[in-house]
Amino acid sequence: MLTMQELTKTYRTELVQTHALSNFNLQVEEGDFVAVTGPSGSGKTTFLNIAGLLETFDQGTYNLDGENVRGLSDKARSRLRNEKIGFIFQSFNLIPDLDLFDNVDVPLRYRGFNSAERKRRIERCLELVGLANRMKHLPSQLSGGQQQRVAIARALAGEPRFLLADEPTGNLDSKMAHSVMELLKDINDRGTTIVMVTHDPLLAQQAKRNIYVKDGKVSELPSLTTAAIFTAQAVNAD
Amino acid sequence: MFSYYLRLAYLSIRRNPILSALMVAAIALGIGASMTTITVNYLMSANPIPHKSQQLFYVQVDSWDPNEPAEEPNEPPDQLTWTDATNLMAAQKAPRQAAMASSAAVVEPPDQDAKPFNAGIRLTFSDFFSMFDTPFLYGGPWDAQQDANKEQVVILSRETNDKVFGGENPVGRSLRIAGRQFTVVGVLADWQPVPRFYDVTTGAFHETEELFMPFLLKQALQLPNGGNTSCWKTPEEDSFEGFLRSECVNYQMWVELPDTQTKQDYLTFLTHYVNEQKALGRFPRPLNNRLSDVMQWMENQQVVADDAKVMLWLSLMFLTVCLLNTIGLLLAKFSGKSSEIGLRRAIGASRTALFYQHLVETACIGLAGGIAGLLLALLGLMGISSLYGEFADNLTSLDLNMVVFALLLSLVCSILAGLYPTWRACNIAPASQLKSQ
User: Fold this and answer.
1) pLDDT, tens digit, 9 for 90 and up, residues B12-29
2) Does B309 lie in the same domain as B291?
C-alpha cells in the first residue's frame, strides 16, 4: 500500500541544514491502522507531508499503491492525492463560507463527478459521521468535534484507500476525541488504511500498529512500550 | 467547473466586501477615464462612410503662391478657387463629382407668425447626394439639368423641415430663402457623418447644414462666402464677380472613382488641366495635384486633435496606475486565502485548477469594474459635452462597439492584473498552510 525506502529529506537555509528524514523506511499494508508517534521535531509532520504528496523528498523511493511517486508532475500528484488519499487535519481546515454539503463536495469537484454522483457520496459520508441532518449548516455553527467529523466526511467522500490524519483529536476535548477515534476505527474496520500522527500515547494505543519516529528515523515498538516511553518522558519533563 | 468557479468568486468577493469594492473602484476609475478619451478619439478617427471611403477622393490642385507653399512642406491649398471648381465640374471627367461651398441665408417660413431665421447652406451639385448616400425622408435630389439651369430648388434637413413645415411632406411647396422663392424637392432623413468629412475646413464635427441648394446659385444670387477663405494675392476687382475670378480658395470638391484605372485617368486629367491653366498664366508652382481618399483626407486635415491624443495617453497611464493598485489589492486578498488554497491543493486541486479559479474571480471583479467604469465614462462624456457645447455632441456618445470594447478592456486588464497575484497564490506550499490555520 505505502512503501518508503531509504527516504531522506533535508531543509536548507543559507546558514543551516536540517535533516528532517534520513534513511526513513516504512511499509504500510492495506487495511493497517498505523499510529506515528515521536517527540516534536522528530520528522513526523515531514513524513506525513511526503506521504500525502504535499512535499517532495531528496533521495530514496516512495511507492503509493504500487506507483512510484518520484518525478510525478503537479497534475499527476494532485490526481493521486484526490483519488487515493484523504486528509484529516488537527484544525479541521473547513472552508468557512461553504456549508457542510459544499465542504464535503470540494474534493469531488476536482474529481469530475457529475452532480448526482457527488450528491450521493456527500449524503452517504455525512450520514456516516452522523451529520446528515445539518448539511446546510456552516462550520461555525458546529462544535469542534462535529467540525472534525465533517473533515472526516470530506476525506472519505472520494473513497480513498488511504487516510492521513495529523493530530485528528488535538483540538478536541477527551469526549469528542474518543468519539472521533471510534469513528476512525470504524472506518478502518471497513477497509480503509489509516496513518495517524499523534502525540497522545493513549490514542496511539488504539491503533493496530505503532511506529516511533526519532531523529528522522523509524523505530517500530509495541503499543504498550510506546505508552511507557511517553509516560517516562512526561515524568522526566516534570 | 466554470459555474463552480463563479460561485466561489461570488463567495470570495462577499467575504472581503471592502477589499473587493476597492478593486472594483480602482478598475472603474481607470476604465472610466480611459473610455472617455478612447470614445472621443474613436469617434474623431471613425470612418464616416466605410462602404465607399476608398472610392471617394478629395481634389487638390496647387494654384498657390510661387514663392511659398500653402502649407509646409509643399502642401497644395486645401480648397479650390471658384474658377477651378467650376472648370473641373464642367469637365465631368469622373463618374460622379461634386464641388461645394458653405454659405448662409435668411429663411422666411410660409407661416406668417413664424420668425425668419438664418440658416447654413451647403451649395453643391446633384451628385453630392448619390456620392455620399444621403438618406431622404421625402422627395430626392435635384438633377444635373437643374444644376446647369441654376434652378431655385432646395433640400431641407429634417430639423429645418420640422421647424418650417411641422414635419409634413413639403416636396413641391415654396420657401422664401435669401429673398427668392425656392421649390422644396426633398427632405433629408437624419444624416450626420462623424467626422463631417465632406467639409472639414469649417469644423470636422459640426452639424450638417440646414439647407442644400445648387452650387451655381452662389453666383446667380450672390450668396455670401461661408467657411474659410484664403487668398495668396488680393483680388484684382473689388466686386462679387471679381472675387469669384480671383485666386482665393473657398470651395471643396469630391469625386467618386470606383477603381485604380479611373483614379489614374482622373489624375492624368488634372495634370492636363493644370498645364492648360499654366499656359493661361495661372498655377505658377510646380505640378502638385492630389487625390486623397476619405481617411487620407481626415489624416491630412488632422481631424483627431493633438490634445485628444495626449489626453488618451494620459488616461491610459492612469489606467495602468489603477491596475497596479489592483495588483496590490489582489496580492493582499489572495494572501488572505492561502490556507484555503493550501487545503484545496491538499485535497486534489492542481495548480492549473486553482489558477483558473482565481482568474475567474479577477475577471468577475474586472467585469464589475468595467460596468462601473462605463457609468463613469458616461459621466465623463457628459462633462465634456457640457464643457465644449454643441461642438462635442457628436463625439460624446457611447455606441454598442464602445460598450463591448470597455467591458473587454476591463476584463483583459483585470486578468492581466490578476496574473501575478494568482500565480503567487497557486505556488503556495500547501504543507506550510495546513498546520497554521
Assistant:
1) 888 888 999 999 999 999
2) no
